[in-house]
Write a structure and sequence with these properties.
This protein has about 450 residues and is α+β, with helices and mostly antiparallel strands. About 20% of the residues lie in helices and about 40% in strands. The chain is built from 9 helices and 22 strands. The chain has helices spanning about 1-10, 70-85, 115-130, 195-215, 230-240, 245-250, 310-315, 350, 405-410, and strands spanning about 15-30, 35-55, 55-60, 100-105, 135-150, 155-175, 180-190, 220-225, 270, 295-300, 300, 325, 335, 340, 355-360, 365-370, 375-380, 380-385, 390-395, 400-405, 410-425, 430-450. Strands 8, 9, 10, 11, 14, 15, 16, 17, 18, 19, 20, 21 and 22 form a 13-stranded mixed sheet that branches. A hairpin with a 2-residue loop joins strand 18 and strand 19 (about 390-395). It is globular and about 70 Å long.
């Protein structure tokens, strides 16, 4: 039936049409200071229809799968109207037309685990976080199984199941001021991923303890060592967004026109890989394009962008599975997945041994970037002063800023030790992502402080 509906749109003159059907199974639990604040469990389903007519797109989402014929008609009319108003030409780059079913594995299916057991897990984590310097705990659990079916007028038919699970630990304490430490853990898989939260309990406790003892940071230009989590955030936020094909094609990226040019130090390689094990993993994107590893920077050279089919057409490049939608209510956008700066060959001790005065910055508590201007500003969640090649004391309220491409050129050392973090990226829509890398030494960057 769906195939006939798509064919009818093409028979009327549409260049292309697709339907993405989704069914969601979701649990959300919040436990704050021992009290369950949010308990949500349920399911929903719906579909997004896209129609390309000439140079115009029509997008219509529906929660009623019984009216797909009317939904396609609405999208078709929207596309025709858009074509009349749109002057810029557009199209879709060619991809392999595939028919596949993929079910990403869960060792322990969280659908079979009741909310009582999930809440008991949160209570267990909370008990492990109870220390005399912790004043408040906020533990959050989310799991989501999405079943997707993508059918296109070109003949593609993709069915996939993607399970994701995340646990957030948020703890606060007070010394001269109130301090907060956060840690997220999880990935693509089943309830077995909750075990990772236990491994991260000491991590978040150590961050809070350091913040409570921390001093005011110095300021000025100096060397900064980013830990793997902050390296990941830098790779994702400062560089990764600039490498998204829609921003490049529209001229809103500092990377426009630089393909094949040197944009970073020779030791820098950055990839965005939805096929690796991570929270942002998927086998096919939301256009039905098979996912693959995208090496964005190779040995300092800009090598690729993250591309959906439309922006690949605009840039005369190959699509690489970069289209992702938050849910069936919205159209896919060009988004990242698992963004990683590859490790080097140095030890951490070698990274810091020649630093007279600098900063070791860990994790992040926010910041801002401009992909168009190529600038960034990040706040480290916790940091440490480096003097004469040694870690001296903890610091708080550390921020650093600069130009993305200049900073990439100033990377002079990368450690062998790697780690990753997970989160949700916002770009009008939310997307599950992983980012990470190694400890990275930037020879000089501007640090903000009060000293």
């Amino acid at each position: 039936m769906v195939k006939k509906l798509l064919e009818s749109a093409v028979d009327k003159g549409a260049e292309y049409c697709d339907i993405r059907k989704e069914k969601w199974y979701r649990t959300i639990l919040y436990l704050k200071d021992g009290v369950p604040e949010t308990v949500v469990q349920g399911e929903e389903e719906g579909a997004m229809v896209r129609v390309l007519y000439g140079n115009g797109w029509g997008y219509v989402g529906t929660a009623d799968l019984d009216i797909l014929d009317k939904t396609i008609d609405r999208a078709f009319q929207m596309a025709k109207n858009s074509h009349k108003l749109r002057k810029q030409e557009t199209g879709l780059a060619d991809v392999d037309i595939l028919q596949e079913k993929v079910k990403m594995p869960m060792k322990e299916n969280f659908i079979d685990v009741g909310p009582e057991e999930k809440l008991e897990f949160l209570r267990d984590v909370e008990d492990r976080l109870k220390k005399d310097f912790v004043n408040s705990t906020d533990i959050r659990y989310r799991d989501l199984l999405v079943k997707k079916e993508i059918i296109t007028s070109e003949g593609a038919h993709i069915e996939m199941e993607i399970p994701r699970l995340v646990t957030y630990m948020i703890i606060t304490g007070k010394s001269d001021t109130i301090q907060m430490a956060t840690q997220a853990t999880g990935g693509t898989g089943g309830f077995e991923l909750t075990e990772n939260a236990y491994d991260d309990v000491e991590t978040v406790l150590d961050m809070l303890k350091s913040l409570l003892e921390a001093k005011t940071p110095p300021s000025g230009k100096m060397p900064v060592v980013m830990d793997p989590h902050l390296t990941g955030v830098f790779s994702h936020e400062a560089f990764g967004h600039a490498a998204e094909g829609d921003l490049v094609a529209s001229g809103n990226s500092c990377l426009k026109g630089k393909l094949g040019e040197k944009v970073a130090s020779d030791i820098v390689t950055i990839k965005d890989d939805p096929t690796m094990d991570g929270y942002g993993s998927f086998p096919f994107d939301d256009e039905g394009t098979k996912a693959g590893n995208r090496v964005l920077v190779k040995d300092g050279i800009l090598n690729d962008f993250i591309l959906d089919r439309e922006n690949a057409w605009k840039l005369d490049m190959e699509p690489n599975g970069g289209a992702r939608a938050e849910d069936f209510r919205v159209k896919p956008l060009v988004r990242m997945s698992n963004t990683i700066m590859e490790p080097g060959d140095m030890s951490f001790e070698e990274l810091i041994e020649d630093i007279d005065k600098g900063i070791y910055a860990k994790s992040t508590s926010g910041g801002q970037v401009s992909p168009a201007q190529g600038t960034f500003q990040f706040n480290a969640q916790v940091a440490y002063l480096i003097e004469n090649g040694e870690i001296v004391k903890p610091l708080r309220n550390v921020s650093f800023n600069g130009f993305t491409l200049e900073t990439l050129q100033n990377i002079v050392g990368i450690s062998k030790h790697t780690d990753t973090g997970i989160g949700h990226c916002g770009k009008g829509q939310s997307a599950s992502v992983t980012d990470g890398g190694a400890d990275v030494l930037i020879s000089e960057v501007t640090v903000g402080g009060r000293e």
